[in-house]
Amino acid sequence: MTRRAPGRRAAPRSTLLGAAVELLRAVLGFEFPADAVVSRYFRAHPRLGQRDRHVLAESVYAIVRNLRLWRHLAQAAPAASEELRLLVLGWQGDAATAGFDPALLEWRARALAQPVAALAPALRHSLPDWLAEALRHALRDAGDQGFEALAAALLQPAPLDLRVNVLKATREQARQMLRDDGIACEPTALSPWGLRVQGKPPLQHSAAFEQGVVEVQDEGSQLLAWLLAPRRGEMVVDFCAGAGGKTLALGAMMRGSGRLYAFDVSQARLERLRPRLARSGLSNVVPVAIRSERDERVQRLAGKIDRVLVDAPCSGVGTLRRNPDLKWRLQESDIARLAAQQAAILAQAASLLKPGGRLLYATCSLLDAENQQIVQQFLDRHPQFRSVDVRDWWVRQQLPGSAPTQPWLRLLPQVHATDGFFAALLERQA
Length: 430
Description:
Layout (H helix, E strand, L loop, with lengths): L12 H15 L6 H11 L5 H16 L1 H8 L7 H9 L11 H12 L7 H4 L4 H10 L4 H11 L6 E5 L6 H10 L4 E3 L6 E4 L9 H4 L3 E3 L2 H10 L6 E4 L6 H9 L5 E6 L2 H14 L4 E5 L6 H4 L5 E7 L14 H4 L2 H19 L2 E11 L8 H10 L3 E4 L1 H7 L12 E3 L1 H4 L4 E8 L2
Parallel strand pairs: 5-6, 5-8, 6-7, 8-9
Antiparallel strand pairs: 1-3, 1-4, 2-3, 9-12, 10-12, 11-12
Helix pairs in contact: 1-3, 3-5, 4-5, 12-13, 17-18
């Protein structure tokens, strides 16, 4: 039996329910990302045990995922605060012993058994109306069934994927190291470097993580580096590097040779790259904080770069499984603002390429306005670039499953079991 650390006793049920109400109220303000609010709350309440933290976090995330539907159902609940009505629906522990009023528990059983198929799709799948319509349009080639499958998939929690650092171990060696620490995982279906972990184990304490053998990275994200395919000795730029997950994948493909610039406008995000970089064993990565896409340090590299990755700032709609609060913090007006930013970044990043160089434009969005439309507008304005058909790449790499039906890559949670991603490969002609 696992013993709790001293000072980490489980909170009494009534106290835990009170904490849940307090935490949920803070999260539903949607002033900050849910994960930041939850982390801040746990830091402020260090006496909460690990099991109680798990119940609190999972309950809050379940509510955020299903918020619109459960608010609709909660209108018929017995008198109680909104937080309690939502919590009884989403409680991820033993609701019978959590301290809920018996009348709420009786109503909960009826409410969760209630058929919802007749409700409007946006309500049934807990999506804002505008986002449901945008997703339906994005999947118009798959019809209503495609939208329904996607919307249902976005209500499920995301799995935990790892990328194996091939500079330090093979996938099977990394898998064995994780097994030795009691962490079960299986090879991913698409990425040759990927491992999918069962459950949510304390990965950060495993030898494989501490030694830089594995990094947390969604399988779909891993495929972006695979698609750009940087070679040893090349000059490569990760234009919107963030905390550097894709940077590290690119560096491993380059076998630590050449030069790999990690550009980002946030020094704070680049600082999160530094410990990961130290674990990775890479020596060819140069993190650079830039003021904007037009920074003079960017312009100095114009016409000199072999490969560029543009993982553009986007709505993040493809990550709703792991960031469900995004759909409530995002506004329809944000999409036009993001599209203008994406177009500017793509144009500036493309200027870095030498003739024959390749650029991968990618987002974790599923919306046409951030994906196909941005790429097509760029190609219309820059005839020196051409689109590279990724279907040939898919077949050449012998990836399992059906090849893409369009010249760009689109990964869907309900089809590929990854986050939602879009990627288009462009080449500068001589």
